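W.,

You were right to be curious about this one. When I first looked at the sequence I had no strong expectations either way, so I just let the prediction run and decided to look at it fresh. Below is the sequence, 126 residues in total, followed by the output.
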Amino acid sequence: MDHTRFDDPVVEKDLVLIHINDQPAFYARVEGFEPDHKPNWWHVKLLALLFPPQLITWILRREQINGEPFTMQGTPIRIEKVKVPQETAADPEPEPQSGHEVSDKPAAGEGKQARILSLGDRKDRD
């Protein structure tokens, strides 16, 4: 199966999903590309969204960056670009709240009760 997506190549700041052994393993943000001394190879800097986050650099060909499977020490790896969903008009932005306000009032036009907690002004921060 051809996973290469040259029509939508991975670029800096893209979110990617790293597959290990044909299973989704972790997300990463592409931080940058630098050419390697070998032609057609790149140093790809990734911010692995792990706990804690880790900055890693892999040396890859452009095809591998864009979805072609490869191996590292015999382990199958594949990078998949993640399409980040866009907000729609049906998803209104939440109104900013200050302090520790809590509202149990029904949202406008709805019979449900909304509970809004603002953590912006927490007193127990260091």
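Here's what jumped out at me. The beta strands are 15-20, 23-35, 41-48, 54-61, 70-72, 75-81. And, maybe more interesting for your project: Helices lie at 62-65.

Coffee later to discuss?

I.
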